[in-house]
Amino acid sequence: MSVELSQLEQVVILGASGSIGTSTLDVISRNKERYDVFALVAGSNVEVILKQALEYKPRYVVMQEAHAATSLREHLSNTSIEVLSGTDAMCDIAAHPDVDIVMSAIVGAAGLLPTLAAVEAGKKVLLANKESLVMSGKLFMDKVKHHGATLLPIDSEHNAIFQCMPAQVQRAEQTNFNAVGIRKILLTGSGGPFLTRDVNTLKAVTVEEAVAHPNWSMGRKISVDSATMMNKGLEFIEAKWLFDCQPDDIEVVIHPQSMIHSMVQYQDGSVIAQMGQPDMRTPIAYGLAYPERIDAGVKPLDFSDMRDFTFTHPDYARYPNLKLAIEACRLGQAATTALNAANEISVAAFLDKRIGFMDIFRVNEQVLEHSTLKDLESLEEILDMDSQARRLAQQMIANQG
Ligand code: NAD
Ligand code: MG
Fold first, then answer.
1. Which H or E run includes 348?
2. Among 31, 35, 97, 185, which has the minimal tally of Cβ within 10 Å of its Cβ?
Protein backbone atom coordinates (compact mmCIF):
# COMPACT_ATOMS: atom_id res chain seq x y z
CA MET A 1 0.00 0.00 0.00
CA SER A 2 2.70 2.49 1.00
CA VAL A 3 4.64 1.72 -2.20
CA GLU A 4 1.53 2.42 -4.26
CA LEU A 5 0.88 5.69 -2.45
CA SER A 6 4.43 6.91 -2.95
CA GLN A 7 4.00 6.42 -6.71
CA LEU A 8 1.14 8.87 -6.82
CA GLU A 9 2.14 12.36 -7.85
CA GLN A 10 1.32 14.82 -5.08
CA VAL A 11 -0.56 17.87 -6.30
CA VAL A 12 -1.14 21.25 -4.64
CA ILE A 13 -4.03 23.27 -6.04
CA LEU A 14 -3.69 27.01 -5.51
CA GLY A 15 -7.17 28.46 -6.09
CA ALA A 16 -8.92 25.12 -5.54
CA SER A 17 -12.43 26.56 -5.11
CA GLY A 18 -12.34 28.45 -8.41
CA SER A 19 -13.17 27.53 -11.96
CA ILE A 20 -9.70 26.17 -12.82
CA GLY A 21 -9.34 24.60 -9.36
CA THR A 22 -12.57 22.60 -9.65
CA SER A 23 -11.71 21.55 -13.22
CA THR A 24 -8.31 20.35 -11.97
CA LEU A 25 -9.99 18.24 -9.28
CA ASP A 26 -12.32 16.82 -11.92
CA VAL A 27 -9.34 15.68 -14.04
CA ILE A 28 -7.59 14.26 -10.96
CA SER A 29 -10.73 12.32 -10.00
CA ARG A 30 -10.58 10.60 -13.41
CA ASN A 31 -6.91 9.70 -12.91
CA LYS A 32 -6.72 8.59 -9.28
CA GLU A 33 -4.11 5.98 -10.09
CA ARG A 34 -1.65 8.80 -10.96
CA TYR A 35 -2.44 11.79 -8.76
CA ASP A 36 -3.18 12.53 -5.14
CA VAL A 37 -4.32 15.90 -3.77
CA PHE A 38 -1.68 17.03 -1.28
CA ALA A 39 -3.22 20.44 -0.47
CA LEU A 40 -6.16 22.65 -1.33
CA VAL A 41 -5.49 26.40 -1.19
CA ALA A 42 -8.13 29.12 -1.51
CA GLY A 43 -9.29 32.54 -0.38
CA SER A 44 -12.36 32.36 1.84
CA ASN A 45 -14.96 29.97 0.40
CA VAL A 46 -15.46 27.57 3.33
CA GLU A 47 -18.43 25.73 1.86
CA VAL A 48 -16.72 24.65 -1.38
CA ILE A 49 -13.38 23.82 0.26
CA LEU A 50 -15.08 21.77 2.99
CA LYS A 51 -16.82 19.64 0.39
CA GLN A 52 -13.59 19.22 -1.59
CA ALA A 53 -11.57 18.42 1.55
CA LEU A 54 -14.00 15.68 2.59
CA GLU A 55 -13.93 14.19 -0.90
CA TYR A 56 -10.19 14.41 -1.72
CA LYS A 57 -8.76 14.11 1.82
CA PRO A 58 -5.68 16.31 1.29
CA ARG A 59 -2.93 16.49 3.89
CA TYR A 60 -3.36 20.29 4.16
CA VAL A 61 -5.92 23.00 3.51
CA VAL A 62 -4.70 26.60 3.41
CA MET A 63 -7.08 29.57 3.38
CA GLN A 64 -6.08 33.18 2.85
CA GLU A 65 -8.60 34.38 5.44
CA ALA A 66 -7.94 33.37 9.07
CA HIS A 67 -11.68 33.27 9.90
CA ALA A 68 -12.26 30.83 7.02
CA ALA A 69 -9.45 28.62 8.34
CA THR A 70 -10.93 28.68 11.86
CA SER A 71 -14.31 27.65 10.57
CA LEU A 72 -12.83 24.86 8.43
CA ARG A 73 -10.69 23.62 11.34
CA GLU A 74 -13.86 23.11 13.38
CA HIS A 75 -15.62 21.29 10.55
CA LEU A 76 -12.60 19.06 9.90
CA SER A 77 -11.69 18.42 13.55
CA ASN A 78 -12.47 14.71 13.29
CA THR A 79 -10.14 14.24 10.29
CA SER A 80 -6.34 14.28 10.02
CA ILE A 81 -6.41 17.27 7.63
CA GLU A 82 -4.34 20.18 8.89
CA VAL A 83 -5.83 23.64 8.25
CA LEU A 84 -3.51 26.65 7.93
CA SER A 85 -3.97 30.27 6.88
CA GLY A 86 -2.13 33.14 5.22
CA THR A 87 0.31 33.70 2.39
CA ASP A 88 3.38 32.33 4.20
CA ALA A 89 1.61 29.01 4.78
CA MET A 90 0.60 28.90 1.09
CA CYS A 91 4.24 29.43 0.09
CA ASP A 92 5.46 26.74 2.52
CA ILE A 93 2.94 24.21 1.20
CA ALA A 94 3.68 25.04 -2.46
CA ALA A 95 7.38 24.38 -1.73
CA HIS A 96 6.84 21.30 0.49
CA PRO A 97 9.42 18.58 -0.27
CA ASP A 98 6.71 15.90 -0.76
CA VAL A 99 4.99 17.92 -3.51
CA ASP A 100 5.48 17.13 -7.21
CA ILE A 101 3.03 19.38 -9.04
CA VAL A 102 1.61 22.82 -8.21
CA MET A 103 -1.42 24.13 -10.07
CA SER A 104 -1.23 27.93 -9.95
CA ALA A 105 -4.86 29.07 -10.24
CA ILE A 106 -5.35 31.84 -7.70
CA VAL A 107 -6.82 34.85 -9.47
CA GLY A 108 -4.76 38.02 -9.73
CA ALA A 109 -1.58 39.28 -8.08
CA ALA A 110 -2.39 37.23 -4.96
CA GLY A 111 -1.08 34.22 -6.90
CA LEU A 112 2.43 35.60 -7.34
CA LEU A 113 4.16 34.68 -4.07
CA PRO A 114 2.89 31.08 -3.75
CA THR A 115 3.67 30.48 -7.44
CA LEU A 116 7.20 31.84 -7.03
CA ALA A 117 7.63 29.63 -3.97
CA ALA A 118 6.78 26.58 -6.11
CA VAL A 119 9.17 27.76 -8.82
CA GLU A 120 11.98 28.32 -6.31
CA ALA A 121 11.45 24.79 -4.99
CA GLY A 122 11.91 23.47 -8.56
CA LYS A 123 8.42 22.01 -8.84
CA LYS A 124 6.45 21.17 -11.94
CA VAL A 125 4.32 24.32 -12.08
CA LEU A 126 1.10 24.42 -14.09
CA LEU A 127 0.51 28.12 -14.71
CA ALA A 128 -3.05 29.38 -15.09
CA ASN A 129 -2.42 32.56 -13.06
CA LYS A 130 -1.28 34.75 -15.97
CA GLU A 131 -1.23 37.86 -13.77
CA SER A 132 1.91 36.65 -11.96
CA LEU A 133 3.82 36.52 -15.24
CA VAL A 134 2.44 39.90 -16.37
CA MET A 135 3.63 41.40 -13.07
CA SER A 136 7.07 39.89 -12.91
CA GLY A 137 7.91 38.27 -16.28
CA LYS A 138 11.70 38.47 -16.34
CA LEU A 139 12.21 37.74 -12.65
CA PHE A 140 9.73 34.84 -12.88
CA MET A 141 11.34 33.25 -15.96
CA ASP A 142 14.86 33.74 -14.57
CA LYS A 143 13.79 31.88 -11.44
CA VAL A 144 12.28 29.05 -13.49
CA LYS A 145 15.62 28.59 -15.22
CA HIS A 146 17.75 29.07 -12.12
CA HIS A 147 15.80 26.61 -9.95
CA GLY A 148 15.18 24.05 -12.69
CA ALA A 149 11.40 24.24 -12.37
CA THR A 150 9.22 22.80 -15.15
CA LEU A 151 6.76 25.44 -16.29
CA LEU A 152 3.73 24.31 -18.28
CA PRO A 153 1.20 26.86 -19.54
CA ILE A 154 -2.44 26.12 -18.71
CA ASP A 155 -4.01 29.23 -20.25
CA SER A 156 -5.63 27.52 -23.25
CA GLU A 157 -3.90 29.71 -25.86
CA HIS A 158 -0.45 29.27 -24.38
CA ASN A 159 -1.04 25.59 -23.87
CA ALA A 160 -2.00 25.40 -27.56
CA ILE A 161 1.09 27.38 -28.63
CA PHE A 162 3.27 25.14 -26.45
CA GLN A 163 1.77 22.06 -28.14
CA CYS A 164 2.48 23.57 -31.60
CA MET A 165 6.10 24.41 -30.77
CA PRO A 166 9.11 22.29 -31.76
CA ALA A 167 10.47 20.04 -29.01
CA GLN A 168 13.62 22.19 -28.52
CA VAL A 169 11.41 25.18 -27.66
CA GLN A 170 9.21 23.09 -25.34
CA ARG A 171 12.32 21.98 -23.48
CA ALA A 172 13.59 25.61 -23.43
CA GLU A 173 16.83 24.47 -25.13
CA GLN A 174 16.28 26.91 -27.99
CA THR A 175 14.35 30.17 -27.79
CA ASN A 176 15.41 31.83 -31.02
CA PHE A 177 12.41 31.68 -33.37
CA ASN A 178 14.58 32.08 -36.48
CA ALA A 179 16.74 29.14 -35.54
CA VAL A 180 13.73 26.80 -35.43
CA GLY A 181 11.97 28.33 -38.44
CA ILE A 182 9.10 30.06 -36.64
CA ARG A 183 7.61 33.15 -38.28
CA LYS A 184 5.14 34.12 -35.57
CA ILE A 185 2.69 33.11 -32.88
CA LEU A 186 -0.98 33.53 -33.80
CA LEU A 187 -2.76 34.19 -30.51
CA THR A 188 -6.48 33.57 -30.98
CA GLY A 189 -9.35 35.06 -29.00
CA SER A 190 -13.11 34.80 -29.32
CA GLY A 191 -13.73 38.54 -28.99
CA GLY A 192 -15.97 37.86 -25.99
CA PRO A 193 -19.65 38.70 -25.61
CA PHE A 194 -19.48 42.12 -27.32
CA LEU A 195 -17.86 41.20 -30.63
CA THR A 196 -20.80 42.49 -32.67
CA ARG A 197 -22.54 44.85 -30.23
CA ASP A 198 -22.84 48.50 -31.33
CA VAL A 199 -19.67 50.16 -29.95
CA ASN A 200 -21.69 53.24 -28.92
CA THR A 201 -23.70 51.14 -26.46
CA LEU A 202 -20.67 49.58 -24.71
CA LYS A 203 -20.72 52.13 -21.90
CA ALA A 204 -24.13 50.76 -20.86
CA VAL A 205 -22.88 47.16 -20.52
CA THR A 206 -24.07 45.58 -17.24
CA VAL A 207 -22.10 43.25 -14.98
CA GLU A 208 -24.42 40.39 -15.90
CA GLU A 209 -23.80 40.95 -19.62
CA ALA A 210 -20.03 41.25 -19.14
CA VAL A 211 -19.60 38.01 -17.20
CA ALA A 212 -21.67 35.93 -19.65
CA HIS A 213 -18.96 34.61 -21.97
CA PRO A 214 -20.35 32.94 -25.11
CA ASN A 215 -17.93 29.96 -25.11
CA TRP A 216 -16.04 29.60 -21.83
CA SER A 217 -17.25 29.24 -18.25
CA MET A 218 -14.77 31.12 -16.02
CA GLY A 219 -14.34 33.18 -12.84
CA ARG A 220 -15.80 36.70 -12.78
CA LYS A 221 -12.54 38.66 -13.11
CA ILE A 222 -11.30 36.81 -16.19
CA SER A 223 -14.80 36.94 -17.69
CA VAL A 224 -14.77 40.75 -17.52
CA ASP A 225 -11.21 40.72 -18.87
CA SER A 226 -12.47 38.64 -21.80
CA ALA A 227 -15.26 41.12 -22.48
CA THR A 228 -12.80 44.07 -22.59
CA MET A 229 -10.17 41.85 -24.26
CA MET A 230 -7.73 42.92 -21.58
CA ASN A 231 -7.50 39.17 -21.13
CA LYS A 232 -5.97 38.89 -24.62
CA GLY A 233 -3.68 41.78 -23.75
CA LEU A 234 -2.50 40.01 -20.59
CA GLU A 235 -2.07 36.87 -22.68
CA PHE A 236 0.00 38.80 -25.23
CA ILE A 237 2.38 39.77 -22.41
CA GLU A 238 2.23 36.23 -20.99
CA ALA A 239 3.21 34.79 -24.41
CA LYS A 240 6.14 37.18 -24.73
CA TRP A 241 7.61 35.87 -21.48
CA LEU A 242 6.69 32.19 -21.81
CA PHE A 243 8.13 31.87 -25.31
CA ASP A 244 10.94 34.41 -24.85
CA CYS A 245 9.98 36.44 -27.94
CA GLN A 246 9.25 40.05 -28.96
CA PRO A 247 5.89 41.82 -29.36
CA ASP A 248 6.35 41.74 -33.16
CA ASP A 249 6.49 37.93 -33.01
CA ILE A 250 2.87 37.77 -31.75
CA GLU A 251 -0.31 38.53 -33.70
CA VAL A 252 -3.79 38.55 -32.18
CA VAL A 253 -6.47 36.89 -34.34
CA ILE A 254 -10.18 36.93 -33.54
CA HIS A 255 -11.73 33.48 -33.92
CA PRO A 256 -15.23 33.61 -32.40
CA GLN A 257 -15.80 29.84 -32.36
CA SER A 258 -12.96 29.16 -29.86
CA MET A 259 -12.19 25.77 -31.42
CA ILE A 260 -8.67 26.67 -32.51
CA HIS A 261 -6.93 27.66 -29.30
CA SER A 262 -3.92 29.30 -31.00
CA MET A 263 -1.39 28.57 -33.73
CA VAL A 264 2.27 28.77 -34.68
CA GLN A 265 3.18 29.95 -38.18
CA TYR A 266 6.44 28.62 -39.63
CA GLN A 267 8.78 30.11 -42.24
CA ASP A 268 8.05 27.32 -44.72
CA GLY A 269 4.37 28.36 -44.87
CA SER A 270 3.08 25.73 -42.44
CA VAL A 271 0.69 26.73 -39.70
CA ILE A 272 0.26 24.32 -36.80
CA ALA A 273 -2.92 24.81 -34.78
CA GLN A 274 -4.17 23.09 -31.65
CA MET A 275 -7.91 22.43 -31.62
CA GLY A 276 -10.37 21.18 -29.06
CA GLN A 277 -13.54 21.94 -27.16
CA PRO A 278 -13.50 25.18 -25.17
CA ASP A 279 -12.98 23.17 -21.97
CA MET A 280 -10.08 23.92 -19.63
CA ARG A 281 -9.82 20.28 -18.60
CA THR A 282 -7.87 19.65 -21.83
CA PRO A 283 -4.93 21.97 -21.05
CA ILE A 284 -5.09 20.95 -17.37
CA ALA A 285 -4.81 17.24 -18.27
CA TYR A 286 -2.02 18.07 -20.72
CA GLY A 287 -0.09 19.91 -18.01
CA LEU A 288 -0.62 17.22 -15.37
CA ALA A 289 0.53 14.34 -17.59
CA TYR A 290 3.09 16.05 -19.87
CA PRO A 291 4.68 14.54 -21.90
CA GLU A 292 2.06 11.78 -21.69
CA ARG A 293 -1.69 12.10 -22.37
CA ILE A 294 -4.55 11.21 -20.04
CA ASP A 295 -8.35 11.27 -20.09
CA ALA A 296 -9.70 14.76 -19.35
CA GLY A 297 -13.40 13.92 -19.55
CA VAL A 298 -13.71 16.19 -22.61
CA LYS A 299 -15.91 15.11 -25.48
CA PRO A 300 -14.13 14.77 -28.82
CA LEU A 301 -14.63 17.41 -31.49
CA ASP A 302 -17.28 16.58 -34.04
CA PHE A 303 -16.15 18.17 -37.31
CA SER A 304 -19.60 17.93 -38.85
CA ASP A 305 -20.70 20.42 -36.13
CA MET A 306 -18.20 23.03 -37.29
CA ARG A 307 -19.86 24.94 -40.08
CA ASP A 308 -18.54 28.44 -39.52
CA PHE A 309 -14.88 28.95 -38.88
CA THR A 310 -14.04 32.64 -39.09
CA PHE A 311 -11.04 34.85 -38.42
CA THR A 312 -10.69 38.65 -38.25
CA HIS A 313 -8.37 41.32 -36.90
CA PRO A 314 -9.25 42.91 -33.55
CA ASP A 315 -10.87 46.36 -33.70
CA TYR A 316 -9.03 48.54 -31.18
CA ALA A 317 -11.90 51.05 -30.96
CA ARG A 318 -14.00 48.21 -29.56
CA TYR A 319 -11.16 46.81 -27.44
CA PRO A 320 -8.98 49.75 -26.31
CA ASN A 321 -7.69 47.68 -23.37
CA LEU A 322 -6.08 45.25 -25.81
CA LYS A 323 -4.19 48.07 -27.50
CA LEU A 324 -3.17 49.48 -24.12
CA ALA A 325 -1.78 46.12 -22.99
CA ILE A 326 0.25 45.69 -26.21
CA GLU A 327 1.65 49.19 -25.72
CA ALA A 328 2.52 48.35 -22.12
CA CYS A 329 4.25 45.17 -23.33
CA ARG A 330 6.45 47.31 -25.57
CA LEU A 331 7.15 49.77 -22.71
CA GLY A 332 8.42 47.02 -20.40
CA GLN A 333 8.01 45.48 -16.98
CA ALA A 334 7.01 48.58 -14.98
CA ALA A 335 4.20 49.33 -17.42
CA THR A 336 2.79 45.79 -17.42
CA THR A 337 3.00 45.59 -13.61
CA ALA A 338 1.15 48.91 -13.30
CA LEU A 339 -1.43 47.94 -15.90
CA ASN A 340 -2.15 44.59 -14.25
CA ALA A 341 -2.64 46.26 -10.86
CA ALA A 342 -4.84 49.03 -12.29
CA ASN A 343 -6.94 46.48 -14.13
CA GLU A 344 -7.53 44.38 -11.01
CA ILE A 345 -8.81 47.47 -9.20
CA SER A 346 -10.92 48.79 -12.09
CA VAL A 347 -12.49 45.39 -12.81
CA ALA A 348 -13.32 44.93 -9.11
CA ALA A 349 -14.93 48.41 -9.11
CA PHE A 350 -16.95 47.51 -12.20
CA LEU A 351 -18.07 44.22 -10.60
CA ASP A 352 -19.11 46.25 -7.51
CA LYS A 353 -21.06 48.57 -9.84
CA ARG A 354 -18.96 51.58 -8.78
CA ILE A 355 -17.81 52.39 -12.33
CA GLY A 356 -19.13 51.70 -15.83
CA PHE A 357 -17.76 49.18 -18.34
CA MET A 358 -15.81 51.71 -20.44
CA ASP A 359 -14.41 53.32 -17.26
CA ILE A 360 -12.27 50.19 -16.86
CA PHE A 361 -10.20 51.38 -19.81
CA ARG A 362 -10.19 54.99 -18.64
CA VAL A 363 -8.80 54.03 -15.21
CA ASN A 364 -6.24 51.65 -16.70
CA GLU A 365 -5.04 54.24 -19.22
CA GLN A 366 -4.79 57.02 -16.61
CA VAL A 367 -2.82 54.83 -14.22
CA LEU A 368 -0.35 54.00 -16.97
CA GLU A 369 -0.04 57.69 -17.89
CA HIS A 370 0.58 58.75 -14.29
CA SER A 371 2.99 55.96 -13.33
CA THR A 372 6.71 56.59 -13.21
CA LEU A 373 8.15 53.80 -15.32
CA LYS A 374 11.57 52.81 -14.09
CA ASP A 375 13.37 49.50 -14.39
CA LEU A 376 12.10 46.90 -11.93
CA GLU A 377 14.79 44.47 -10.86
CA SER A 378 13.74 42.98 -7.53
CA LEU A 379 10.56 41.47 -6.19
CA GLU A 380 10.32 44.39 -3.71
CA GLU A 381 10.37 46.89 -6.59
CA ILE A 382 7.71 44.91 -8.43
CA LEU A 383 5.44 44.72 -5.37
CA ASP A 384 6.02 48.42 -4.75
CA MET A 385 5.00 49.31 -8.30
CA ASP A 386 1.94 47.09 -7.92
CA SER A 387 0.85 48.89 -4.71
CA GLN A 388 1.46 52.36 -6.18
CA ALA A 389 -0.64 51.55 -9.25
CA ARG A 390 -3.43 50.15 -7.05
CA ARG A 391 -3.46 53.37 -4.99
CA LEU A 392 -3.54 55.50 -8.16
CA ALA A 393 -6.42 53.45 -9.56
CA GLN A 394 -8.39 53.78 -6.31
CA GLN A 395 -7.87 57.55 -6.37
CA MET A 396 -9.04 57.81 -9.95
CA ILE A 397 -12.14 55.78 -9.20
CA ALA A 398 -12.88 57.92 -6.11
CA ASN A 399 -12.43 61.12 -8.19
CA GLN A 400 -14.89 59.87 -10.80
CA GLY A 401 -17.65 59.32 -8.23
P1 NAD B 1 -12.01 32.03 -9.93
O2 NAD B 1 -12.42 33.37 -9.49
O3 NAD B 1 -13.05 31.06 -10.35
O4 NAD B 1 -11.15 31.35 -8.76
C5 NAD B 1 -10.14 32.03 -8.09
C6 NAD B 1 -9.54 31.20 -6.99
O7 NAD B 1 -8.54 31.98 -6.31
C8 NAD B 1 -10.55 30.79 -5.89
O9 NAD B 1 -10.24 29.50 -5.43
C10 NAD B 1 -10.29 31.80 -4.79
O11 NAD B 1 -10.63 31.33 -3.50
C12 NAD B 1 -8.78 31.96 -4.91
N13 NAD B 1 -8.29 33.20 -4.35
C14 NAD B 1 -8.69 34.48 -4.61
N15 NAD B 1 -7.97 35.36 -3.90
C16 NAD B 1 -7.10 34.61 -3.16
C17 NAD B 1 -6.09 34.94 -2.22
N18 NAD B 1 -5.83 36.19 -1.87
N19 NAD B 1 -5.38 33.93 -1.69
C20 NAD B 1 -5.64 32.63 -2.02
N21 NAD B 1 -6.58 32.27 -2.89
C22 NAD B 1 -7.30 33.25 -3.44
O23 NAD B 1 -10.93 32.24 -11.09
P24 NAD B 1 -10.57 31.26 -12.30
O25 NAD B 1 -11.44 31.54 -13.46
O26 NAD B 1 -10.43 29.85 -11.82
O27 NAD B 1 -9.13 31.82 -12.70
C28 NAD B 1 -7.98 31.55 -11.92
C29 NAD B 1 -6.74 32.00 -12.66
O30 NAD B 1 -6.62 31.22 -13.85
C31 NAD B 1 -6.78 33.46 -13.12
O32 NAD B 1 -5.50 33.99 -13.05
C33 NAD B 1 -7.22 33.37 -14.57
O34 NAD B 1 -6.74 34.44 -15.36
C35 NAD B 1 -6.58 32.06 -14.99
N36 NAD B 1 -7.27 31.39 -16.11
C37 NAD B 1 -8.54 30.97 -15.96
C38 NAD B 1 -9.21 30.36 -17.02
C39 NAD B 1 -10.61 29.85 -16.87
O40 NAD B 1 -11.14 29.25 -17.82
N41 NAD B 1 -11.29 30.02 -15.76
C42 NAD B 1 -8.54 30.20 -18.24
C43 NAD B 1 -7.23 30.66 -18.36
C44 NAD B 1 -6.60 31.24 -17.28
MG1 MG C 1 -6.82 32.17 -22.24
1. helix 333-351
2. 97
